[in-house]
Amino acid sequence: GATIGILGGGQLGRMIALEARRMGYKVVTLDPTPDSPCGQVADEQITASFTDVTAALRLAELSDVVVYEFEDVDDQVVAAIENRVYVPQGSRLLFTTRHRLREKAALERAGIPVAKHSPVSSFSDLEAAADEVGLPLIVKTTTGGYDGKGQWRVLTRESLGAVWAEMENVVSSSSESAAVDPSDAPFIAEAEVPFVCEVSVVVARGATGEVRPFPAAENVHRDHILQLSICPARVSQDVLAKAQELAVRAAESLHVVGLLGVEMFVLQSGEVLVNELAPRPHNSGHYTQDACVTSQFEQVIRSVTGLPLGSPALLSPVVMSNLLGEHLEGAIQSMPSWPDTFKLHLYGKEESRPKRKMGHINVVAESTDVALQQLTNLGIFGVCE
Ligand code: ATP
Ligand code: MG
Ligand code: MG
């Protein structure tokens, strides 16, 4: 059978690999850590740095198709793989989505609304952003951030200096120096969006242009980390349709082949802004594993192997709760008394740390309210609502 190469060995790669094997494919993975979550379940693992071009070419040689499962990989390495083997997502999509300013520019070109923002390379840029974009501001590193890492909230002009001092540390500790081209700036300052809720849509697009969005999930973050995804999202039909429309437009304008996770803010007015994109399966799409006809992991394999896309139809209301390091102990202890509709997914990570994503639970139920109550009753996630 055909072999799927996976660049990146995290939990997303693991869940792609598990589905790929169920569907009869072989899997090879490349990650710097031996026995990474993905490596553990692959047929073969290459242990090497993501900047090791020889290792990347070896992955290409062993694979019929290569996918990447995270964004913080050098688009030049992906370009080298692309010269040897089919990389449906492509290095171009990675180049755009791994950089918050390039991503926002691409969204704006497609007519998709985003928060007011400006590039920041210097303290005076930060001061100018406070004037032009307004306060409160959320400042983010343009590359490499996830789970809210590399973000600062600025509430007052007086605090700009202290925030800049922390930001400077981040830049000088990386090799990047102050950028000349503003679109390559190391930071982006965004207006803080007064959202009523956050939703996301994972959309699949095949090489033929076929597009299928999954239903929108409503996302609850704690400390900037996703805690709950609730599907169906508790928003109007109008907002649901708009969210799917925006996701489809984003996938089409970026010529995605594979999946695109589209995170959005919903305003009181019903207006929807796109927060960020992920050119891969998305944490907020894990609910599809136990609640949809086709999971996002099966769908990514279908889209990159040229199979027709599967039905994204939702079979049951569902709530996904992430299991972070601090939840793990309580989860394992309470497992014997879990309702029989709790579906556990663990990522095989050796070391548990607070805030580290160790697994997730999908709860299918007659309503999302019932699922949320059952999660609250576990007593390890606090009040889920
Ligand atoms: P992820 O793990 O989703 O990749 P990330 O580190 O890339 O996260 P974002 O998605 O940009 O970060 O931000 C994390 C969360 O912080 C958002 O889901 C939202 O709750 C909040 N947030 C980020 N940007 C803004 C903003 N401009 N206005 C209001 N809230 C924001
Ligand atoms: Mg992100
Ligand atoms: Mg995000």
From TrEMBL:
> Catalytic activity, per the record?
5-amino-1-(5-phospho-beta-D-ribosyl)imidazole + hydrogencarbonate + ATP = 5-carboxyamino-1-(5-phospho-D-ribosyl)imidazole + ADP + phosphate + 2 H(+)
Q: Does the keyword Nucleotide-binding apply?
A: yes
One Pfam match, given by its short name, reads: RS_preATP-grasp-like
Top-tier EC class: ligase
Single annotated GO MF: metal ion binding
Give the record's GO CC terms: cytosol
A GO term (biological process) for this protein? 'de novo' IMP biosynthetic process
Residues reported in the UniProt entry to bind ATP? 100, 140, 145-151, 190-193, 198, 221, 275-276
- Cite the EC number: 6.3.4.18
* Name by which UniProt lists this protein: N5-carboxyaminoimidazole ribonucleotide synthase
Q: Which organism is it from?
A: Alicyclobacillus ferrooxydans
Q: What is the lineage of its organism?
A: Bacteria, Bacillati, Bacillota, Bacilli, Bacillales
